[in-house]
Amino acid sequence: MFLPKYPDSPTPPPAHIHVPAAPAPAQRALPQVSISSGAIATVIVGGVVLTALLAAVAVTAISVAVAAVVLRSLLREHHRR
């Protein structure tokens, strides 16, 4: 019931011949980019330093926030007395 129906006499597909309209342009070689190990080390060290600075700022901000909450709590209890 669901079997495909094939033609009785199969005909081969027509041959297609591709003829370029113009000759292909000459391929130019890409310039070789050489990255020195010093440049890679500089980028890695810079990333580590920036990450450390970001972590230091985050820790400082959390410390200041905790100190503000503690001082607010102490001052509130001082005003209640």
Sum this structure up briefly.
The chain has 1 helix and no strands. By secondary structure, the protein is mostly helical.
Task: Supply the key terms.
81 residues, mainly alpha, 54% helix
Task: Describe this structure as you would to a colleague.
This protein is 54% helix and 0% strand. The protein is mainly α and 81 residues long. The protein has a domain at 50-81. It is elongated, with a radius of gyration of 37 Å. The mean pLDDT is 84.
Shape, per Cα inertia axes: elongated
Alpha-carbon distance between the termini?
93 Å
Radius of gyration (Å): 37 Å
| N-to-C SSE string, H for helix and E for strand | H
Which structural class do the helices and strands define? mainly alpha
* Count of strand segments: 0
Note poorly predicted spans: none
Main sheet summary = none
Strand content: under 5%
Q: Percentage of helical residues?
A: 40-55%
- In terms of quaternary structure, the protein is single chain
Output the number of helix runs: 1
Mean pLDDT: 84
How are the SSEs placed, and which strands pair?
Layout: H1 37-80
